[in-house]
Amino acid sequence: xxxHPDRIFDQHRPLCLASSSxxxxxxxxxxxxxxxxxxxxxxxxxxxxxxxxxxxxxxxxEKARKIFQDSTKFPEQTIILSGDxxxxxxxxxxxxxxxxxxxxxxxxxxxxKTHQVTTAYVVLDTSNGEELIHHVSTQVTFRDLDxxxxxWYLALGEGLDKAGAYSIQGYGSFLVTGIEGSFNNVVxxxxxQVLETLLKRGWISLRSPKNNG
Length: 213
Prior knowledge:
Number of helices: 6
CATH architecture: Alpha-Beta Complex
CATH class: Alpha Beta
Strand content: 25-35%
Distance between the termini: 17 Å
Number of strands: 9
Mean pLDDT: 92
Shape: globular
Helix content: 25-40%
Largest sheet: 7 strands, mixed
Low-confidence stretches: none
Structural class: alpha+beta
Number of domains: 1
Radius of gyration: 18 Å
CATH topology: Maf protein
Order of helices and strands: EEHEHEEHEEHEHHE
């Protein structure tokens, strides 16, 4: 892989991100990883009677496998990284609102309560088809917002097309009074765990500080 002066890892395998999420891209770029992106076309609807954790793990797996089917189109020994994130409140999954009224309903539901954000991620080795499947959960507590505060946030439009109708890395941080677990998980990827997985397999390694310029 090419040298990058700001890189803190040496990268030993090509990496494919099976997602178009700008948040996930930003997390990988923050740590100087080189990757290319492909968007898998999969059915992300929940099956009847399917639990929240099995659901998010299945969707993440299906995304990685969909890309793997086309693995002849990219470099040998590529590592595929896929993920799926859900917001869970009292047993109900809150998806991505399409319009403001739907977002308003979600913010009302979350107001003053603690909910769970779960991300499943899959690391698939295209050299042998091996799949490493993990999931991480974070507890997020919303402050008790008044009507003016809720309408202020909704008017920003930031939460549209984001699970749970808010963006923790944006102005939505104002809505939150406490987090237990990985903040990055709520953003889109538990990047600290993803990096640990890549390190344990030897697909990346720590770069010596003396090699960084």
